[in-house]
User: Which sequence fits this backbone?
């Protein structure tokens, strides 16, 4: 069974600074996908970024990028130039064929002005 | 773009009452899901439907039933609501393409059972 762990229940970052959220996963599948979702106070789940495990290149979406370390089963999210609107819960998730999506417990990110 | 639409957004029930949460997606996705999210916790899968005509239990199915009415619609029913079912409920959908699978969520339904 797949598992996803987020070891940081809460993080904070100063506005305009960079912060990295950690995620580790465990899967026996060779083909899988990894995701970061953002959940602001509105509770809407918003896809931030996704990574195909077969791709070595780290995914990037504007100020959001990942550090995908396949051997270490690590998938961290880096947020650059943090903005007040980045304050949210962030969930790491994994998925593979024949398996349901598995979500981590989340990291609450606060952005300090 | 509507995406995943769920209704109602807010509902207060008395213990023992029944209700149905409705969900519809317009993305032609094969798979649909119902999750619940409790304070300070992540998402827990209640039921899912991998394709039209099939439903399966997730992590926390007790006290719930589902119906995959057609490819677009997937409803969640609470037959006899209990205070422990106070939660935020999310419907979601996904479909596998050549580039993999991504799950999309509705805006959530806030349910309070008193």
Assistant:
């Amino acid at each position: 069974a797949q598992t996803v762990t987020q070891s940081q229940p809460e993080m904070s970052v100063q506005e305009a600074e960079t912060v990295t959220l950690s995620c580790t996963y465990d899967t026996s599948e060779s083909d899988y996908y990894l995701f970061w979702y953002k959940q602001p106070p509105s509770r809407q789940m918003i896809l931030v970024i996704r990574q195909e495990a077969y791709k070595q290149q780290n995914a990037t979406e504007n100020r959001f990028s990942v550090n995908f370390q396949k051997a270490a089963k690590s998938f961290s999210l880096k947020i650059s130039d943090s903005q007040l609107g980045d304050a949210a819960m962030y969930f790491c998730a994994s998925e593979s064929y024949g398996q349901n999506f598995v979500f981590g417990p989340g990291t609450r990110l606060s952005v300090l002005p | 773009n509507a995406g995943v639409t769920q209704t109602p957004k807010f509902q207060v029930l008395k213990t023992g009452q029944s209700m149905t949460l409705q969900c519809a997606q317009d993305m032609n996705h094969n798979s649909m899901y119902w999750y619940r999210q409790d304070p300070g916790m992540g998402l827990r899968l209640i039921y899912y439907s991998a394709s039209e005509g099939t439903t399966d239990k997730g992590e926390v199915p007790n006290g719930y039933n589902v119906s995959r009415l057609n490819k677009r619609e997937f409803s969640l029913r609470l037959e006899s609501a209990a205070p422990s079912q106070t939660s935020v409920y999310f419907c979601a959908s996904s479909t596998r393409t050549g580039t993999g699978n991504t799950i999309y969520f509705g805006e959530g339904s806030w349910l309070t059972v008193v």
Remarks:
- The longest strand of chain A covers residues 88-96.
- Chain A has a mean pLDDT of 94.
- DSSP finds no helices and twelve strands in chain A.
